[in-house]
Amino acid sequence: MATSSGLVWFRRDLRLGDNPAWAAASSEHQEITALFVLDPALLNRASSRRVARLLGDLAALDESLADHGGRLLVRVGNPESVVPEEARRLGVSAVHLNHDVTPYSTARDNVVKQQITELGIDWIPEWGTLVHEPGRIFTKAGSLSQVFTPFFRVWERTAWSPWPAQGDAEITADPGDGIPQSERPYPVLDGETGDAALAGERGAQARLDLAVYRADSYDGDRNTPSVLGTSQLSIDLRFGTLSPRFIAQAVGESSAGRAALVRQLAWRDWYAHLLFATPTLVEQPMKPQYAAIQWRQDDKSFDAWKNGCTGYPFVDAGMRQLKKTGWMHNRVRMVTASFLVKNLLIDWRRGERYFRHVLLDADVSQNVGNWQWVAGTGPDASPYNRVFNPVLQGQRFDTEGDYIRRWVPELAVLDAKAIHEPWAVGPLELAAAGVELGTDYPEPIVDLAFSRGRVLDAYGAVKR
């Protein structure tokens, strides 16, 4: 029987559907308050584009609550003080929430939990951001696998922990400080039209419908950055306008493409489980010998990389797409990250922090896990001697140069061969295309063969 009142603290779960914290509260209480705290410590770390996305999804959540007779209570401040204050003011008997795995959120939640319990209020966490919660996917030896494939084999055959059923509690209608208006429109990705460009659950459902429609070709198209081949759902997963379980159910595994898409959710779980178990992954390599690598402190090259001015078109296309849109194709993320770490010998942590600041879908566990994979320093990592060749990668995955032409328009006139390595083109052909290297487009900032040898020496030194 539903009793008293409860508080649901929304964070990375900006939806009402398929949300275990919201469902539990709505079934256990007669009245519930939906709270979101705008934390300046987090907002100051995010790009203005990601803040705009957050505000758009918060406004959409507020509208969904209004459809049920309530409002989203918004407060600005440190959650460590705001959440206990609101729980005390409202006289709730329980605070419901969905866990997060980052070191920041874990430390924050421990502080809030202590204060909440000292007030005599129940602290009721759920796992609404992952398919399987940490601690569920272990090897036969009872440990979390450091290699993805064994993790995945257990992940796919493990039954889901049940989530609470939805109730019908009354929702309070105090908007609090209100949701700030963003100066930017709600950001959309390439190919999004109509409802798919909307914020919140409605837009997320439309994006999921598109992803399901394209899912059969996912495995064949996902590595081609010039086509709409990826699911485009990473931002919805980041803000929680969709749950990963809902995606897995909608996509299914009836084809190779669909199975490959669902497998990405397992990668997402794996990185989250690893970070939850080893919070130092944010700053320290999982393979401790690599902490001794002598990284180059080269701000000029780092800035050239950030701004898409390295002289390598496939790398520059990706970095310009990121800077312009707050998103980058997954294959290109690997190539651009490898270029920074392996060709420029710049610390992977600098690149990870930059991606985390700019990306709309910035997720600490995924970002850290992928950067450590590329750097060869993490679990199940790419071997340290694997160095992506940005020219060959472009030729393989952007064969006609369409992706480069879109994001590096100064090279658009070049043909499919020349556009991947304009420095190899004769001066007459460049002149005919209106391109002068060093003026219209930069010369390569590093020699690939030299940089490959340099990074292998640097890694080899610490391995010895």
Describe it for me?
There is one protein chain. By secondary structure, the protein is of the alpha/beta class. It folds into 3 domains: 5-129, HUPs (Rossmann fold); 130-160 and 197-277, Serine Threonine Protein Phosphatase 5, Tetratricopeptide repeat (Alpha Horseshoe); 288-463, Orthogonal Bundle (DNA Cyclobutane Dipyrimidine Photolyase, subunit A, domain 3). The chain contains 20 helices and 6 strands. Strands 1, 2, 3, 4, 5 and 6 form a 6-stranded parallel sheet that branches. It is globular. The mean pLDDT is 94.
Question: Summed up, what is this model?
Answer:
The protein has 464 residues and is of the alpha/beta class.
SSE layout and pairing:
Elements: E1 5-10, H1 20-28, E2 31-38, H2 40-43, H3 48-67, E3 72-76, H4 79-90, E4 94-98, H5 103-118, E5 122-126, H6 148-157, E6 170-171, H7 200-214, H8 218-221, H9 234-239, H10 244-251, H11 256-277, H12 299-306, H13 313-325, H14 330-343, H15 348-358, H16 364-375, H17 390-397, H18 402-407, H19 427-432, H20 448-463
Parallel strand pairs: 1-2, 1-4, 2-3, 2-6, 4-5
Helix pairs in contact: 4-5, 6-11, 10-11, 11-16, 13-14, 14-16, 15-16
